[in-house]
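User: Run a structure prediction on this.
Assistant: Running it now.
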Amino acid sequence: MSPKVNRRQFLKMTLGGSAWALAAGCAPTPQPAAPAQPAEKFPTRPVTLICPWAAGGGTDRVARMVASLLEKDFGQPVNVVNRTGGGGAVGHTAGATADPDGYTFTIVTVEITMMHWMGLAQVGPKDFAPIAQVNFDPAAVQVRADAKWNSIREMLDDVKANPGRYKASGTGKGGIWDVARAGMLKAAGLPVDAIPWVPSEGAAPALQELIAGGIDIVTASLPEGAPMISAGRVKPLAIMADKRDPLFPNVPTLKELGIDWVMGAWRGFGLPKGASAERVALYERAIRKVYESPEFKNFMETNGFGMVWRGSQEFASFMEQQDRTMGQLMRELGLAK
């Protein structure tokens, strides 16, 4: 024993070391961590995308493009189903009341903020779990290529002299293009019924009816009329926007002509209310990939669809704001029930 270590210190060191060794020897052997559970694969079967509007229209075309690109990410078919009727009420209701398991989602349009104000449907923005907004398109006034009007002013002067003589269409009663028509007339100092509205299932059938001579005016987006404009069968007179569309630079805005009116449609996607936050996040990520893909950007630019991105939370706030705005507007126009 070192002369520098007395007996008490030696016993303390020895017993302390023994206690430590005993404790260490009795300590349970660490068990390996349980392997992490793999994330649930989704989807494992085909997915349905409900489109509330007719095949061939702008909303249908956007839906089908998104579906085709989502299939690459999901590894499963994404089937677009057109559930038309009631000015968008049938499709939106079907989407809102579907099973919230994520296997059915809906391309939601501006009409979701309008239909319930008019008593057309009980469904509204709060009945969806918003995923994202991808588009905004202003309304445009379109007529047959052989129409006698070559400007919006000529058309409105004729309407003022002959109220009720000319008919317009583009969507169901009280739909976005109907509100666009009514607001334009009001801003121009004309009665909102100076151009009666003929309900239709969307822009595509309305444009066909325009060509056939059943109606005289279509208020819908320029992208929806683009195929017939390119074919020389339809001519646009004005656009309801703050600035001209770069793809249609010769089409003036109503504001340029002294009519202070801007109105447009938008498109986004939603799951039924009650869908899990995980499902919403999964779809938001997947649709963001679609939105940023060269294929989607080329499709939107080629067809003249305006691109706007709002994620799930921002899209939810946007729809709430739109809902309040549309309620006030439709009360002013006498369209609210």
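The two ends are 102 Å apart (CA to CA).
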